[in-house]
Specification:
Blueprint: H1 19-38, E1 42-44, H2 45-57, H3 63-70, H4 74-77, H5 79-99, H6 107-126, H7 130-143, H8 146-158, H9 164-189, H10 196-215, H11 221-233, H12 242-246, H13 250-267, H14 269-299, H15 304-309, H16 312-339, H17 351-368, H18 376-403, H19 408-437, H20 439-470
Helix pairs in contact: 1-2, 1-8, 1-9, 1-10, 2-5, 2-8, 2-9, 2-10, 5-7, 5-8, 5-13, 5-19, 6-7, 6-10, 8-9, 8-19, 9-16, 9-18, 13-14, 13-19, 14-18, 14-19, 14-20, 16-18, 17-18, 17-20, 19-20
Subcellular location: Membrane
Keywords: Membrane, Transmembrane, Transmembrane helix
GO cellular component, one term: plasma membrane
């Protein structure tokens, strides 16, 4: 006998949880993402994500102090940011398939890896050897990555197809705002001691770990049903969970997680384009960590603390875009879904104006960074870029999750790898480009390249249905 949900309203089904419980889980997951990315809240995923992303850029204000202490160049010290980004890009390849195994579920990868994240963060804050710091930064990003690998899957566990975009808004907010808050949090602490930013990661993550261990519920449907079947098996030996009938081993899951995304990306033009485009947009975002010190430090002569406040422009753009996107969902798209059957490509409608605003924001920044123009003008360009890129990423996540539901977790993991490696590369070479070409011409090059995204997104919107019809991976409307 195959056990399932007792009724459509089964209270153990995450889809039937109260709004408050769903919000709590989303908050936790997103918060961790922020912390990891600083050095990069509907559910626990949001809090988790915040911590991880915050961790990526939080070391930037310590660059000058590390250069003096260890006698290294700017290019070498940048490895502390780049290698962290690589770490949280590679991690999902390991943790994503683990979370898909019913006997493991979502929580063990979250909890065990975050314990290691906290331990590594403590060691990193006290060690006094630069090569060791680089290695530990990679491990820090690696162990912080489960929220990036499975956060989207956790949200899908709890929210219906119609309401899932609301959850993704919070998840992507952590993804975008975490790195922007890192320099701001560290700029004031670093004046006391260059290690204080590293201790800030510990102070944020350690208390959250206790909350994560004690209060994060399991959301995987397969895992919940498996545990139910195991309880009933004592009284009815014939009871089996759905997962127990599939006999899908770890090797098969690993192949699905590692091989399938590559195969799909190569063979599916829509996926290939979106992977490349999102990676480029994210890499441009990380180039800001090199562009802002030149633009606002050299051109406008801002001190480190004031310069760090400029990163708030990214958060402002993200908040405005998230609000507008939420209004669009509530008053336009979701009512249409309930009364009609929109195509998958209709999820991309918000990207059509956004792909025009994205290069416009970069051009505005590039052409107004000069002494004769007030600093607020190029900053407005950053707000436009960050808001439009948020909408692009949000809409693409929704499109992929609905068009390729069978492989969505694996696709998110593969996207993390390409996006993170591309961003790490930009971190290492962007400074050279801005110094050689000048900040205006350098950002103009990036803006010109982003114009190509306009044609690609319009093509996917117009011809996406035909491409999906030919794909053996995508689903129909």
């Amino acid at each position: 006998m195959i056990i399932g949900w007792y009724t459509p309203d089964d209270p153990e089904n995450p889809l039937n949880w109260s709004l408050g419980r769903k919000a709590w889980v989303t908050l936790l997951i997103s918060q961790v993402q922020y912390i990891v990315d600083i050095d990069h809240l509907l559910t626990d995923t949001r809090a988790y994500s915040f911590i991880v992303y915050c961790g990526s850029s939080i070391v930037i204000p310590s660059y000058e102090f590390m250069m003096l202490r260890y006698g290294i160049s700017r290019e070498v010290v940048q490895l502390t940011l780049a290698i962290y980004v690589v770490g949280y890009g590679v991690g999902p390849l390991v943790f994503s398939p683990l979370s898909e195994i019913a006997r493991i579920g979502r929580n063990p990868p979250y909890v065990l890896s975050f314990i290691l994240f906290v331990i590594v963060s403590i060691i990193l804050a006290v060690i006094d050897n630069f090569p060791a710091i680089v290695v530990l930064r990679f491990l820090q990003g690696f162990f912080g990555s489960p929220c990036l690998a499975s956060g989207g899957a956790t949200i899908q566990d709890m929210l219906s197809l119609i309401n899932a975009p609301y959850g993704f808004i919070f998840w992507v907010t952590g993804f975008y705002c975490g790195p922007a808050l890192g320099p701001l949090l560290a700029a004031f602490a670093v004046t006391s001691n260059w290690r204080w930013p590293l201790w800030e990661i510990v102070l944020m993550s350690a208390p959250f770990l206790i909350i994560l261990v004690c209060l994060l519920p399991e959301t995987s449907h397969e895992t919940i049903l498996l545990r139910r079947a195991q309880r009933l098996h004592r009284f009815h030996p014939a009871v089996l969970a759905p997962d127990e009938t599939r006999q899908l081993g770890f090797q098969a899951i690993l192949i699905d997680a590692l091989i399938k995304p590559i195969e799909m990306t190569v063979m599916d033009p829509a996926l290939a384009y979106m992977s490349v485009y999102v990676s480029f947009v994210y890499a441009v975002y990380y180039s800001f960590f090199e562009a802002f010190p030149i633009a606002y430090g050299s051109v406008y002569q801002m001190p480190q603390t004031s310069l760090s406040l400029i990163f708030l422009a990214i958060i402002v753009g993200c908040a405005l875009a998230a609000g507008l996107y939420g209004v669009y969902l509530k008053y336009s798209f979701i009512p249409r879904c309930r009364n009609d059957n929109p195509s998958q490509e209709d999820r991309l409608i918000p990207t059509l104006p956004a792909v025009f605003l994205l290069p416009a924001g970069l051009f505005m920044f590039a052409w107004t960074v000069r002494h004769s123009v007030h600093w607020i003008v190029p900053t407005i360009g950053i707000v436009i870029y960050s808001g439009s890129s948020f909408v692009v990423y949000q809409a693409i996540i929704v499109y992929i999750s609905l068009s390729y539901p069978r492989y969505v977790a694996s696709l998110f993991a593969a996207a993390d790898v390409t996006r993170s490696i591309t961003a790490a590369g930009f971190v290492m070479f962007a400074r050279y480009m801005f110094l050689d070409l000048g900040i205006g011409k350098g950002v103009t090059v990036l803006a010109g390249l982003s114009v190509g995204g306009i044609f690609g997104m319009i093509f996917i919107y117009v011809y996406g249905a035909k491409l999906r019809a030919r794909s053996k991976f995508a689903v129909g409307d």
